[in-house]
UniProtKB/TrEMBL annotation:
Functional summary from the UniProt entry: Mediator of sterol homeostasis involved in sterol uptake, trafficking and distribution into membranes.
GO (cellular component) term, any one: endoplasmic reticulum membrane
Membrane topology, as annotated: Multi-pass membrane protein
Family to which the UniProt record says this protein belongs: Belongs to the ARV1 family.
Gene name of the record: Arv1
Membrane-spanning segments: 132-153, 165-188, 222-241
Keywords: Endoplasmic reticulum, Lipid metabolism, Lipid transport, Membrane, Transmembrane, Transmembrane helix, Transport
Any Pfam family hit: Arv1
Protein's name according to its UniProt entry: Protein ARV
Lineage: Eukaryota, Metazoa, Chordata, Craniata, Vertebrata
Domain of life: Eukaryota
Swiss-Prot/TrEMBL GO biological process terms: intracellular sterol transport; regulation of plasma membrane sterol distribution; sphingolipid metabolic process; sterol metabolic process
Protein localization: Endoplasmic reticulum membrane
Length: 248
C-alpha cells in the first residue's frame, strides 16, 4: 500500500499523450516536462533525442521567461507555445488592434485642419475610431492570410490538419504582443516617435518570424519569405482603401 503510492504518483505525471510537449532545445516530442516526487521534490525530464532537459523554463520566474521571449530566443518561444496553457491570444489580438486603431485615430485627428467645432462632434470622432479598428482588422487578416498562403505553397506538408493551422494562428497572434508598445510611443510623443513606430514594426515582424520558425520547425529563410508575402497582401489592401478615398 504505502510503497505503491509514489509509483502511482509518478505514473500519473508520466502518462501524458505522446507528443503533448516539446523539447525546447531540439523540438523533439516529449510525454512529460518533469516528475513530481512529492514533498516539493521535482526532477526535470531529459529529452531522449538531444539528452538535454526537456524544458528548463519550468523552474524559471515568468519575468525571466518574458525577457527571453523579448530577446526572441527559440527556447522561450517553444516553452510558451508548446509547454504552457496560455489562452489569451484572442484577447491579446483584440487589444493590439485597439491600440493600432487608437494610434491611427490620433494621427487622423492631428492631420485634420478643420477647426470648426460643429465638425468635431463626438459621434463623428467615435465613428472614425470604429472605422480605423475595422481597417486595422482587415489589414491584420490579410497579413495572416498572406502568410498562410505562402507557407501552404512552400511547405504544404507542414499544415496538414486544422490543429496545425490553429497552432500557427495562435503563435502569430501571441507573437504580435509588441504592438502594445504603440500606446506609450504615442503618449510620450517626441520627435523620434516615427522612428519608434518603425522599430516596433520591425520587432513585431521579427517576433512573427520566430513564431513561424519555432511552430513549424523551419529554417530562418522560409518564415521571412512568408512574412514578405503577408506584407505584400497587407499593402495591397491599404492601396485599395486609399483608392476608395479612405484615410488609413
Amino acid at each position: 500500500g504505502a510503497e505503491a503510492r509514489p509509483s502511482e504518483a509518478l505514473r500519473g505525471q508520466a502518462m501524458a499523450a505522446p507528443g503533448a510537449y516539446r523539447c525546447i532545445e531540439c523540438h523533439g516530442e516529449a510525454t512529460e516536462l518533469y516528475r513530481d516526487y512529492q514533498r516539493g521534490v521535482l526532477r526535470i525530464s531529459i529529452c531522449k533525442s538531444c539528452q538535454k532537459p526537456v524544458d528548463k523554463y519550468v523552474e524559471y520566474d515568468p519575468v525571466i521567461i518574458l525577457i527571453n521571449a523579448i530577446l526572441c530566443k527559440a527556447q522561450a518561444y517553444r516553452h510558451i507555445l508548446f509547454n504552457t496553457k496560455i489562452n489569451i491570444h484572442g484577447k491579446l489580438c483584440i487589444f493590439c488592434l485597439l491600440c493600432e486603431a487608437y494610434l491611427r485615430w490620433l494621427q487622423l485627428q492631428d492631420s485634420s485642419q478643420n477647426i470648426d467645432p460643429d465638425d468635431l462632434i463626438r459621434y463623428a470622432k467615435e465613428w472614425d475610431f470604429y472605422r480605423m479598428f475595422g481597417i486595422a482588422s482587415l489589414e491584420q487578416t490579410s497579413f495572416l492570410v498572406g502568410i498562410f498562403i505562402a507557407l501552404w505553397q512552400m511547405r504544404p506538408e507542414m499544415l496538414k490538419t486544422k490543429s496545425d493551422f490553429i497552432l500557427l494562428l495562435k503563435a502569430l497572434l501571441l507573437s504580435s504582443y509588441g504592438k502594445l508598445l504603440l500606446i506609450p510611443a504615442v503618449i510620450w510623443e517626441h520627435d523620434y516617435t516615427p522612428l519608434c513606430l518603425m522599430l516596433i514594426k520591425v520587432f513585431v515582424l521579427t517576433s512573427n518570424s520566430q513564431a513561424i520558425r519555432v511552430t513549424l520547425n523551419l529554417n530562418r529563410t522560409l518564415p521571412w519569405l512568408a512574412i514578405f508575402i503577408g506584407l505584400v497582401l497587407e499593402n495591397a489592401v491599404v492601396c485599395l482603401f486609399q483608392k476608395m478615398g479612405w484615410n488609413v
